[in-house]
Design brief:
The complex is a heterodimer of chains A (113) and B (109). With 113 residues, chain A is mainly β. Helix content of chain A is 0%, strand content 57%. Chain A has no helices and 11 strands. In chain A, the strands form 2 sheets. In chain A, strands 2, 4, 5, 6, 9, 10 and 11 form a 7-stranded mixed beta sheet that branches. Chain A has a 4-stranded antiparallel beta sheet with strand order 1-3-8-7, with no helix packed on it. Chain A is globular. In chain A, 32% of the residues are buried. By secondary structure, chain B is an all-beta fold. Chain B contains no helices and 11 strands. In chain B, the strands form 2 sheets. In chain B, strands 2, 4, 5, 9, 10 and 11 form a 6-stranded mixed beta sheet that branches. In chain B, strands 1-3-8-7-6 form a 5-stranded antiparallel beta sheet, with no helix packed on it. The chains are: A mainly beta (113), B mainly beta (109). The interface between A and B is medium-sized, with 24 and 23 residues.
Chain lengths: 113, 109
Amino acid sequence: ETGVTQTPRHLVMGMTNKKSLKCEQHLGHNAMYWYKQSAKKPLELMFVYNFKEQTENNSVPSRFSPECPNSSHLFLHLHTLQPEDSALYLCASSQEQGSYGYTFGSGTRLTVV
Amino acid sequence: DQQVKQNSPSLSVQEGRISILNCDYTNSMFDYFLWYKKYPAEGPTFLISISSIKDKNEDGRFTVFLNKSAKHLSLHIVPSQPGDSAVYFCATSYGKLTFGQGTILTVHP
C-alpha cells in the first residue's frame, strides 16, 4: 500500500472510553503530523514528530496522547474526550520537518457522545 | 491570532467560467505558499504552490498569483469544471504548514 493510511475511518466513542487512531505511511518520510479539522475552522496542527521525536505540541490537552514508535507509524491515543473534540483528525507526512510536500491521509471522523 | 485567512467561506461558479479563490496572510516571513484541494471523506491533496521569489505560477487550468506587498495570494481556475467542486485550502510554509479555513467551491454545470 502506498501513501498515508488512517484507521479507523469513522469512530464513535463515549466520554469515558479509551481509543486510538492509527496512521501509517509507506513513503519513506521522516516527519509525521496530526491535524484537527473542525467545522468552519482552519486545519489545526496538533503534534509534529521528526525522526520519531516529538518536536511540536500546540498546547493540545493531555486527553490526546500521541505516540510515534517509528518513522512509519503514528498513533493518537484518546481518553476522556469531550463532545467538542468531535472532528476530522488528519495525519500527514513529509520528507522531514520543514519540507513543503505534505501527504495527507483520508482522516478519521471522530464523534464523541 | 489567525495567520492565514480565507475570508470567503464559499464560492459558486458556472461551468466554463473563472473561479478566483483568495487568501491573505499576516507574516511577511512566510516564503512558500501552497493550495490544497479536499473532497469529502478524503484528505487534502496538493494542488499548486508558489515561492515568494515569484509572483505567478501556472499549471494547466490553475494559476496562483502572489502579491507580497499586499500579503495576498489568489488561485485562478479557468475554465472551471464540475469536478473542481471541493474545499480549497491555502497554506503557508515557514517551518510548518499553516492553513486557512478553506473555501467551498461549487461549480454548476
